[in-house]
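As promised in the previous annual report, we have extended the structural survey to additional targets. Below is the entry for Putative PurR-regulated permease PerM.
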Amino acid sequence: MKLPLTQRLMLAWLALAGTSVVLVWLLAPVLMPFLTAAVLAYVLQPAVDRLSRRLPRALAVVLVELGAMAAALGVLLLIVPIISRELPVLRDQIPVLAVRLNDHLAPRLAQFGIAISLDIESIKAFVLKYFDAKGDGWLAALLSSARIGGSFLLAIIGNAVLVPVVTFYLLLDWHDLQRRLRRMVPPRYLDAVLGFTRECDAVLGQYLRGQLLVMLILAAYYTVALALARFDLALPVGIFTGLAIFVPYVGFGIGAALALLAGVLQYASLYGVGVVAVVYGAGQVIESFFLTPRLVGERIGLHPLAVIFVLLAFGHLFGFVGVLLALPAGALVLVALRRMRAGYVASRLYQG
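The corresponding C-alpha cell record, generated without further manual editing, is:
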C-alpha cells in the first residue's frame, strides 16, 4: 500500500532528524570545538561587519578575533596579582595555621578518643617544596600532571588552536554560508524559516545584552563591597568574579574561592571568612532572584520563574554545558512555542 505524499514527507523529515541526532551524539567530542567556534562567530560577526566597511574583511576578522582573545586573556590575568601576592603569604601562613590547628583541634578530638597530631615538619617541607619563591615546585608539579594527563592536555591545546582557526573561517565566509543555507530551504518554506531565524536572532541579541549588563553590575557590586570591607585585592577579585559570572556556578565558585583565600591570608581570622560569606551570599541572591530574571529573562521574554526552571532543567539534563546554554536555548524554544501557538490559534482545530 502506497502512503500519501504528506505522510511520506513526514517520515522522510523524521528519518532525517533522527539521523542528525544520532550523528551529533556519536560525533559530540569532534563537534564541540566547531560548535564553540560557531557561537563565537555569531557573537563577533556584528563587529566584523562594521569594521569590514572600512577594511578588508580578512583583516577585520583578524583584528576582531585578536581583540576578543586579548579581552579573554585580560580577564584571566586578573588572577595574576592575586596569586603573585598571596603565594608568599600562603607559604608563610600554612605552617602557622597548621600549628594553631594542631594545638586547638588535637586536644578536643582526644576527648572523644581520637588521637590526631599533625606532622608540622612534614608540612613545612611540603610548603618549601611547592611554594618556593622561584616556582620550581609548581613547574615540576605541572610537568608531572602533563605526563599523567597527557591526552587531556593535548586536547586542551588542540582546541585552543582549532577554535580560533574555525572561528576565523566562519567569520570570513559568514554571509556566503548564510546564502548556501538559505538555498537548502524549500522555496515554499523560505519566508517562514527566515522569519523564525530573524526572531531568534533578535531574542539572542537581547540575551547577550542583558547578560553583559548583569556581569557589569555584579563586577561593580563585588568590587565595592570588598573595598568597603577593606580587602587589599578588592579590585581584581571583584572584577574577575563579576565577569566570570558568564559561566554559571563555576565562575562564581572560582571568584568566591579567590576572595576567601585573600580574606583568610589578609586577616588571619574569621573576619575574612565572614565578610566573604556575607558579600558573596548576598551577591548570589541578587543575581539569581533579581538581576538574571529581570535583566535577562524579561529581555528575552521569559518569566522569572521560567528562567529559574530552565536553568534547573537544563542543568539536570545536560550538566554544566546545559547550564551554560540554558537561557539562550530557552529563548529559542520560546520563539518556537510562540509560532506553534500562533499556528494552532489559526488552525481549524482551534477555530472549529
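DSSP finds 14 helices and no strands in the chain. The radius of gyration is 26 Å. These points will be discussed at the next consortium meeting with the crystallography subgroup.
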